[in-house]
Amino acid sequence: NSYFTEIQELPPDPLFGLKARYSKDTRTDKVDLGIGAYRDNNGKPWVLPAVQQAEAKLAKTPGYNHEYLGIAGYEPFVSSAAKIILNGDNKDVLERTVSVQTLSGTGSLHLAGLFLKKFYKGSNALYLSLPTWANHNQVFASIGFDVKSYPYWDNDTKSLDLNGFLNAIALAPPKSVFLLHACAHNPTGLDPTKEEWSKILEAMSKYDHLPLFDSAYQGFASGSLENDRFAIEAATSASSPIKSSPIIICQSFAKNCGMYGERVGALHIVLPKDLVDLKPAIKSQLNKIIRCEISNPPAYGAKVVALILEDKALYKQWTEDLQVMANRIKSMRVKLRDLLTNKYKTPGNWDHIVDQTGMFSFTGLNKDMVERLERNHGVYLVSSGRASVAGLNDSNVERVAQAIDEVVR
Ligand code: PMP
């Protein structure tokens, strides 16, 4: 044709393709362990009680309306979001931070990428963990970064390849961007320990790289918002080894508030002391990018989350809701491991299922096993062997264990 250059049809997105196959499957006992969304013990989406209460309160607020937000978003949301991820008691860090509202975590990563691409004087190399969330690659490649990877998961030991990670930090061009999962690493469910984090941050500082934290699961991993921001606090506090580089944080409320489709997120750029004067300029440039891309962000979810973060009773309810989700997932990990180990005596060691944290377990099942799980048992997980543990419940965990046992033997 004379209108478009070659437009090739692409294969469906692997995760959303899996969702489509699952929906079409007519087996009544099928199990969805694909997409990373929390399900309750009946396998149903869960509207958090804190969210329900905040929505009711919001609807009754005098003057409630659906007007446009400002370009940088809903200010009460943006400032409360910064306090929750950065530790609100640390005024020094908050004063060095520029924050704007974004289209959830993905929009935050994309905005961070556009901003860095335009203004960062460092290397064009951007390092992702191997493996990582499938979307990271294309988000940054599409902006023009030279996307590389650092070793993370050691498949033999099912633990962190710390030496490989530190080596990659040492060998990367100075001032490279390193994307770090703040907690609940996707897809492996494996987080560095506190000691390992301090080595990683020391090395990041030594080689002057820019840390870009992706925080999509704060509160989801341990059930505690404070625990799950450990790495970010360690990187941004006064005692951090990182003194000269800015630190970027991409924050999502999709999972920890169960607000997946409302696209609630924020971008925070924490500046070193000597760059604080750049705050107004940075904010204005972020605003310009936002104005071009989306004009202004969506209001509803940000208003709901702001209420939860600001209202003492709602906040308390939220912390309880987080524990409900984290504990249910932890109990499913234990059940699955126990069934495989004790009941079915499935070959191999399954302790990693319990040791891992957050939404996912990197099961160690290979592509062929995953295919057979889907074909023969109606149990759906992505081909890497990553299982969304939130898809397990008391009614299906036994069946899933039995199916895994069958494909492993
Ligand atoms: N980062 C990671 C590691 C994720 O797992 C996800 C969601 N799966 C996101 C970012 C982005 O999620 P959202 O855009 O829905 O906030």
Automatic annotation (TrEMBL):
It holds the Pfam family Aminotran_1_2. Coiled coil: none annotated. One of its GO terms (cellular component) is cytosol. GO terms for biological process: aspartate biosynthetic process. SUPFAM superfamilies: PLP-dependent transferases. It catalyses: L-aspartate + 2-oxoglutarate = oxaloacetate + L-glutamate. InterPro entries: Aminotransferase_I/II_large, Asp_trans, NHTrfase_class1_PyrdxlP-BS, PyrdxlP-dep_Trfase, PyrdxlP-dep_Trfase_major, PyrdxlP-dep_Trfase_small. CDD domains: AAT_like. Belongs to the class-I pyridoxal-phosphate-dependent aminotransferase family. Homodimer. NCBIfam families: PRK09257.1. In eukaryotes there are cytoplasmic, mitochondrial and chloroplastic isozymes. This is Aspartate aminotransferase. It comes from Scheffersomyces spartinae.
